[in-house]
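PROTEIN DATA CARD
Card holder: Reverse transcriptase domain-containing protein
Chain length: 936
Origin: Parnassius mnemosyne
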Amino acid sequence: MHQNIRSITRNMDELKVLIHRTALEWDLILLTECWLPSTHYIPIMDGYNYCKTLNNATQNEGVVVYFKKSLNITWQELSISDCNSIFLKICKDTIVIVIYRPPGFKDPTNFIESLSNMLDQYSHYKNIIIIGDINIDIVIHSKDSYASYYLNSLASKGMLPAHTFPTHGKTCLDHVVLKTKLQSTCYVAETSITDHDTLIFLFEANFSTRSLPPKIRERINYDKLDSYLSTLDFKSIYSMVDVDLAATFLMESLSNALKINTKTTKVSNRKIIKKPWITPGILRCLRNRDKLHQKCKKYPDDDVIITTYKRYRNYCNELLKKLKKEYEKSELTAAVKISNKKLWDTIKIVTNMNKQNNKADKLLNKSDPITSVNYVNSFFINMGKSLAEKHHINNNTSSIFPINTYQHSIVLLDTDEHEIETIILNMKTNCSVGRDNISTFFLKRYRNLLVPPITYICNLSLKTGKFPNCFKLAEIHPIYKSGDAGCVNNYRPISILPTVSKILEKVINKRLTNYLEKHNLLSHCQYGFRPKRSTQDAVHELTDFIVTNLDSKKKVVAIFLDLAKAFDTVSVPLLLNRLEDLGIRNTQLKLFSNYLTGRYQRVRIGGCCSDDLPVSYGVPQGSVLGPTLFLTYINSLCNVKIHNGRIIAFADDMALLFQADTWSEVFNFAQNGFDLVNKWLKEYKLTLNVDKTKYIAFTTKNINVPELEYFHITAHCCSQIDSSCSCPTLSRTDCIKYLGVMIDNTLSFHFHIGLLSTRIRKLIYIFKNLRRVADHNVIKMVYFALCQSLLIYCITIWGGAPKTTMLQLERAQRAVLKVSYSLPFLFPTTDLYQQCSVLSVRKLFILHTALLQHSMIQYESSNNDKRRKYVVCPSKCLKTQFSHRFFCFLGGYLYKKLNKRLLIYSLTKHACKQTLQKWLLNIDYKAAENLLTVLS
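Structure generated from the sequence above:
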């Protein structure tokens, strides 16, 4: 089916009604003139995947193709002049080319010549179908002067039109042109979606299909499960001294209980696209509308018939919108009463935010899916192993990087039922289940029954130093990233572990983390996966170092490391050595050793499952303990002493910072420090991705520094390090993304603010759809979740940027608010923020800067007795105007100003936030900017 839809978002509902009325399963649904600006989300159709054109010259262009999930179709966007086009390979000898040529191109000569050249490339295909809105009139006796040239050009390639019926008024602008010896039929259906009729093309092709496994719907009968579990006796577990036997008995008992009381039904893949708001009444109205439309064409000069048709058409369109709006509004209202998850799922449907299903099934060979899924598993297993085994361990590692052995030892104390119950209650309910099918909801529902045996198993594991083998079985689900969907390298392995294993891991991780933090065993440079530390703290440390040194007229260079598959290349023997150095010994070390070895994983894609393979490298992905163990592994790297430099790390995201008086000195320090770090990485089997590791030379002004051309940093991989080696050099860049913030060489953050503005503008489409059906409370909740959450991320770092830089972001924020609340374009800015009860970007910066400084100050009651009681925190003595935009100066300066007016020092953080928000909401733009003005 082909349809010129003239805005896919506006007319998608009518298209779905048309598809429902035909009661057919269309293999391909081809839509042209889709109005695809870059911000649009494409509506999802059940049972279909889609592809779309990206190179659209104007917002009124675009082609979208929906194809059945069972079809093994490959596609690409073509570069035919003056049009949008998509190439679809249906099978080895059949292709379909979908084209939309906008009417704005009056002269189609370039298009015809480009199309002709393209057809030469595909002449070896036996069956070629071109379908789309070409905007060249090929009706018989056409007056279009280019029609003959167009048809003759196609005829020379063996292509002939399947019809010449009018499709737009009295002109034939929507074409089906084909080269084939097979039987085919083309229909022109008079429809009223737009002023273009619908093309229906039937073709007996030998489609390349893949059999999709039927959808499995499982429903647990909890009434029967309650009765069944009440008969189970777990007393035998308490007499077991082997933790493997105890854990296996519990897991098999629970899995068997679930299996017996779960009803499994297969849902056919054959689905007719139908929405609940498509009622029999609206279908009758649409049929009457179509009859009037046909009558209107038959009597084009009868004004009464035309007026009657237009009025009835408008009535039907409004009725259709009203029915859909009422349905979506009722769904949203019901979702609010159920749960936040249900609410967000409904919002995604209403705003077309749902993404296409996972494409991992394209990794399967239809003739031998088991071999395919085994290959995927082997690839993921060997991914980290192959990288790690490229490095050879230096036997004298300890002499190069001395390790301080901690004399004290950790003791993993027993847990109790209260702790286990608290862990279960705090677990997320919507997590995926492992191969045992035991969900978090199941554990919470039956916690009174399960807490005692789980507590016994956890304590038995801690006592014997053995982690149950049934807890070490992972199931991998490949998640598509980008690129060729048939290439396994373009997928990220997501590991799902048994839910019960996470309880034991949380018990161990809590004790390990408390031990490491209590004795300050982790480097102060490490900010990842640690309590009371965040990405914002790491980026603050980075910018504070750069700003304070630039303020002192120093030269600063930062190297941003990129480690390839760091978590997957961890060497287990080396990790156990590091754990022992940190005081984890005897039974406790035996427990960690047992936890890290004897692990297996399998890959599941749809209904196909691979064989289990052993995992010999890396920390367990998807585990609770994995991140903490990784921190202990690279802890000695964070403690490496580099001259005139500093290491900042958030897990494996690391930056090396260097400062000196001259560029020559700072590059010398950077090279020496980088060599030392690179040597550590090799000895610990971690691989540096040289192509993605870059450095930035920072300056206060965006000016060219000729000296920088003479310096470089080399990633030495040779044994003899000297200036004549041919080792690769690191690339210098002016901007890099670090922990979600775009860091540029002048810390102006104009790249970050520009990208953030684009992301905020993309939300306009979502709020435009949402405002039709949601009340203001829901809209405001979604605004805070989708928009303000983006604005406040690390805002204390970049929010002090100049007014001219911030202006584009504030305009994007205002655009979202106006669309959300259906306010006019010229609605006054001051009234906008008051009416919506939200803060502008600059006020958000002031708020979060003050709150961060408030949390850093230790309250002392004696300060309230001082004569100048608003002076409660010192400000760094930074001289340049450049440094006055950053938290290292502005935090204390701004806090003292606000405390002088509002006396917030003695307030709790929550009370401080409430006071600041209320006050900031009532001040104007100029007053907010004056708060940031520093008098010289």
